[in-house]
Amino acid sequence: MNRRHFLQGLVSTSYVVLSGASVLAPLNALAASGPKSKDGWLTTGTHFGAFKIKRKNGVIDQVKPFDLDKYPTDMINGIKGLVYNPSRVRYPMVRLDFLLNRHKSDTTQRGDFRFVRVTWDKALNLLKDSLDEVQTKYGPSGLHAGQTGWRATGQLHSSTSHMQRAIGMHGNFVKKIGDYSTGAGQTIMPYILGSTEVYAQGTSWSLILEESKTIILWSNDPYKNLQVGWNAETHESFAYLAQLKEKVKQGKIRVISIDPVVTKTQKYLGCEQLYVNPQTDVALMLGIAHEMVTQGLHDKTFIDGYSLGFDRFLPYLLGESDGVAKTPEWASQISGVTPEIIRDLAKVMTQGRTQLMMGWCIQRQQHGEQPYWMAAVLATMIGQIGLPGGGISYGHHYSGIGVPSSGAAAPGAFPRNLDEDQQPLFDSNDFKGASSTIPVARWIDAIMQPGKTIDANGSKVTFPDIKMMVFSGNNPWNHHQDRNKMKLAFHKLECVVTIDINWTATCRFSDIVLPACTTLERNDIDVYGSYANRGILAMHKMVEPLFESLSDFEIFTRFAAIMGKEKEYTRDMNELDWLKKLYNDCKKANAGKFAMPDFDTFWKDGYVHFGEGKPWTRHADFREDPEINPLGTPSGLIEIFSRKIAQFGYDDCPGHPTWMEKTERSHGGPGSNKFPVWMQSCHPDKRLHSQMCESQEYRETYTVQGREPVYLSPEDAKSRGIKDGDIVRVFNDRGQLLAGAVISDSFPKGIIRIHEGAWYGPVGKDGSKEGGAEVGALCSYGDPNTLTQDIGTSKLAQACAAYTCQVEFEKFRGKLPQVSSFDGPVETLV
Amino acid sequence: MENSMTKPAISEEQMNNTDMNKARAMVYRLLSSLFAKEIDHQLLHELTSEPAKAFWAQLASEPSFKRDVDAMVSVLESLTSDKALMELAADYCGLFLVGTKHSASPYASLYLQDISKSAKAGDQPLLFGEQHQLMLQFLKQSQLQVQTSFPEPADHLAVILAYVEHLCLSASDEEQLSFIESYLNSWLGKFAAKVTQCDSGDFYCALARLTQSWVNSDLTGLTEER
């Protein structure tokens, strides 16, 4: 029969399939028994909190919150989708044109997404060769390996530590100073209150609940932001917020949310809102201060005893120095708050105990230093700094600040720097006249204008000529501003290397992409509660690293081996040795104070509890005796006027808090005739920055037609013919994006919100499938940083100013492109 | 692969059946290996050897295979430089190694998922899901496992094809028919269409179509022999 003949014909060709082994092998009894650890519930933790996981047949099956977590975030429902995500980086990959042409590749192709798989050995040698090339040709100023951020949790496997130690063993490189979240705040506050304030432990919630009469949430949404933490988050703050809600209901504490929009916290607490025009908070604060002075409400004794420079500020406030008195009427015209309310606020704040709680958003705008400084001045005038339930805080929405610390020592970490006696392969420290450290948000400026000198925090920074970037566990194609400018800058880079778990936009715009495994695929330990230090958490490996992904420890141990520095890198210790060392060092530090069992017991139990802490008041010691316990400011006092800042001579950050107009502002401000709508791009409610955006099932709980939501007012929707659920094109001169309309009363006219962290998914300008690499591309998913402005807050901090951003939007009527953000580097979008 | 000459003598009919199954197994093995990884120099050398040329020619003698076999052979013959091999590897990467929605991922789960569950637009099932578990069970029953050097979910096309290769040599026609129908042919058409849609070159779309035609013809053969 034909089939027989045909098949026999095949056999008779004597062709034999030789190449490689079959993908199948006989079942190995040992391997078949599955992962060595038991399949029951195991403990681990992430930024989203601690939780327990149950496996089934070697695969993560169920996730449930940790026993101690009484307020878990529903983001843990997205964990499984992170691990088994279709956008996992599965193998080491190299952009094809880079593989062919190395440092002379066509860099305009970045974003066209043509990659090939290579072996780990090849990829790591390619990394080494690229570093050799840059160090030889340009020296350390050619390499920037300092864009780092929210690495996955775990004290041993921190992607930042591993990358910087390993790359540092190869050679020196440009680093950053500051961060995107709090750049302006953390730069100015040491001059004013003596510390960054943003990352300082705050007065305990229990004292605030007992003592405060009024709480001002100023641009602050703790109920949203406390879901995540820098370490495994305990979510204990939510118990206090629940008590606060009760006190608001009973009329015992008055909470006023000063914010242009109705926040999640406001809705939860059922508290009052005071609407203020976007970016005008400083004017409002000045109006309040003016009223306090003219009515004699301010605490002159406190000002005299604890602060410096009120006399230098007063002439400005009263208009003696510039001819403009900062009266409630003046403030009203700018801020949109009536003079009556401003006068009332001055009274409310100075009658009874008032706690000011600042959020971080208002310092991510042009002159973002000013609202923080002026708020400190207001708190000084109120005179309650150092009293329980009074004064000012800048972090009660962050990582459980305000939850009393246990006082225990937290575990140390794998070293980020070289050991003292270690030298890099390329030991040159010649940065060719350029700065070795640059403000975090100015790296794109540096790439585009090497050699340019800018002012920054009292110094001159000369931009290095950056030719190569190395990122690990970091996604600047989320957190940096102005995608189209970034594309132009990336054309100038010769080599970009990214190590991550999933194909972020940063991976997609890279040349070498290396797969790291997730936290659930390695063993680690973490402190439970960044500020609470409630205990130590075992982070058990739940599954073997998927595909060819490796732990950060393993990736850079292999890289160090290529440099002949493996033992130097690991100090000749493996993963388990390190875990034991970190645990035992911690045990030693806590000896006699906090009982800790031996490592094996801890590892089996999964957790060691340090107990509760004692309530504490920020700045109480300073209030008690400012001479014995001075602040960290130059004078040791609160600096209402900063001689140091004044000496810098910056026009955009003078010696005392000042209202300054923005380059673009809504509600009658500059540029609002062309782009009338202010876009806020605050921290998301359902992600940690861009982490978790790729987890599809969870993402679909909030997306609109598969797009990131854009929240907008009923009035703006109506005037543009937009219905809830429509796709909207948001645009300005810098870029354009598509997002899904969510019409909400929480948003007033002229204000929209798109949460940052929405994955960038460029398609052609007209929505066509190709052209994602081009400048002007349309973001198919809704990344707000397609539209934001890449400018420094001021010459002081040079920090991220994403909130100074005007846009317009319209109903999208074109052919809707597919979302291109979550599918890895697929070159042709169909 | 073992040399059939070393086998003990058996009746002509049986030998024919054994040979037939060996031939079928060989084709499944070849298809599996082509989906399992990129074509490197060594594999290219083998695929363009004289015996391989004869094999391709014989395969192309079947009219329903001819167009795709010719296309594949033509691409193989054009792979005369490292760059050409890398371009083909980039095609492979874009199709099979990244993402799922816009690529032609070789995982059964993406094509076999319960339609009622995936009513939402653009739904992408997670990797290592139900189909992976199902294939693990099949493999275990047959005392097999996926090679550790192939760290892919067990519902990868290369694994399924390799499993059919195993069945060709060990299972009854009925068992083969049942498995191929349910776990391979049920999604191969959709997969081949996706590869054809997404491939920026000519090789892998031809390979996917050839696989589909081969499986179709093999099913017909198995059915007729019952």
From TrEMBL, chain A:
Catalyzed chemical reaction(s): trimethylamine + 2 Fe(III)-[cytochrome c] + H2O = trimethylamine N-oxide + 2 Fe(II)-[cytochrome c] + 3 H(+)
InterPro entries: Asp_de-COase-like_dom_sf (IPR009010), CT_DMSOR/BSOR/TMAOR (IPR041954), Molybdopterin_N (IPR041460), MoPterin_dinucl-bd_dom (IPR006657), Mopterin_OxRdtase (IPR006656), Mopterin_OxRdtase_prok_CS (IPR006655), Prok_Mopterin_Oxidored (IPR050612), TAT_signal (IPR006311)
Subcellular location: Periplasm
Keywords: Metal-binding, Molybdenum, Oxidoreductase, Periplasm, Signal
Signal peptide: 1-31
Post-translational modification: Exported by the Tat system.
Domain (Molybdopterin oxidoreductase) ranges: 88-560
Cofactor descriptive note: Binds 1 molybdenum-bis(molybdopterin guanine dinucleotide) (Mo-bis-MGD) cofactor per subunit.
All residue ranges annotated as the Molybdopterin oxidoreductase N-terminal domain in the record: 44-84
Record-linked Pfam families: Molybdopterin (PF00384), Molybdopterin_N (PF18364), Molydop_binding (PF01568)
Function: Reduces trimethylamine-N-oxide (TMAO) into trimethylamine; an anaerobic reaction coupled to energy-yielding reactions.
Family statement: Belongs to the prokaryotic molybdopterin-containing oxidoreductase family.
Name the UniProt record assigns to this protein: Trimethylamine-N-oxide reductase
UniProtKB/TrEMBL annotation, chain B:
GO cellular component assignments: cytoplasm
Keywords: Chaperone, Cytoplasm
Superkingdom, taxonomy of origin: Bacteria
One of the protein's GO biological processes: protein complex oligomerization
Subcellular localization, as worded in the UniProt entry: Cytoplasm
Listed Pfam families: Nitrate_red_del (PF02613)
InterPro entries according to UniProt: Chaperone_TorD, DMSO/NO3_reduct_chaperone, HscB_C_sf, TorD-like_sf, TorD/DmsD_chaperones
Role this protein plays: Involved in the biogenesis of TorA. Acts on TorA before the insertion of the molybdenum cofactor and, as a result, probably favors a conformation of the apoenzyme that is competent for acquiring the cofactor.
Family affiliation: Belongs to the TorD/DmsD family. TorD subfamily.
Protein name: Chaperone protein TorD
Protein source organism: Shewanella benthica KT99
Name of encoding gene: torD
